[in-house]
Amino acid sequence: MDMNRRGFLRSAGTMGTLVAAGAAAGCASPDSTPERPAAAPARTLGTGLARGLTLLTFRAQGQDRLGAKTAKGILDVAQAAALLGMYAPATLDDLLQQEDGPSVQAVVEAAVAGTAAQAAFRPEDGLEYGPLVSRPDKVVCVGLNYRKHAEEIGSPIPQYPVLFNKFNGSLNRHQGTVKLPVDLATNFDYEVELVIVMGKTASRVSEADALSYVAGYATGNDFTARDLQNGRGGQWMVGKAIDGFAPLGPYLVTAEQVDPDNLAIECRVNGETRQSSRTSDLIFGTRTMVSYISDYFTLKPGDVIYTGTPQGVIQGMPTAKQAWLKPGDKLACSLESLGELTFDLV
Predict the structure, then answer these.
(1) What pLDDT shows up at residue 19?
(2) In the chain, what is the greatest distance between 2 CA atoms, to the nearest angstrom?
(3) Which among 24, 57, 79, 223 is placed 20 to 30 Å from 342, CA to CA?
């Protein structure tokens, strides 16, 4: 009789569990089950460099976004990817550091070829630009790298590239402003420069292979306070790495579209041409610079190299003609095929 009682209790317990489960299932409404958000598309293409693109960073709703310049206008790459159900990185830094060139190239090609992503195109007029890149691992600069510039300031032609650095806080944007620290310095000078942006990790690479590691090229300005650079025993970093002293942009033009060692380069101040030369006057060409720098520092995707400035800087003028830059001045810097970078001094 005890065995029958124990069996009955086990059966009753099991039935109770099943009834409770059935009741819970019966009470649940089909509409009350929370919907899981659709998974974002995953990257399906391999890593590599983008090709055939002119890229930029623009600002929308307070965010920096990856853009591509096309015949239809500026493409918001992330918005286009969402409309097309494709994967794309959110920013140019992400593209470079994740080596996401093929993914971006696929989105741009699909958006241009069809109409599904038409809403992701916008006119460039009135666009607010962000910093072209914001978080490279390194910003490396090369000084005294044009023959005529070295001659104009009375410096010997260097035997090796002269290297110094800036910081991420120095990076500035197209159509931005450079705030002059007039309480610290007065001798402010311009330096228009070709900028190399790395696309692959480069360590001790040969000159022959060096440019295959480059993602693209951009227009930059190595803005400088000469009295800080030269007047404190040679403090190049102090004179050049101040916040905002590295304007860059508006575009990153992918590497295969550019012959970096034969480009026209110019700088204008308030509409007056001050620098006009060609990158063929470089003492150390782009292959040499990338190879040499990679011997000492591993260059990572997204790293930036400012390559030096040609003749025509204020420092190279006779002392009586040295009218240093001041708040209110407007600068325009251009490199053939890479676009014009503009910024104001405040």
Answers:
(1) 35
(2) 119
(3) 79
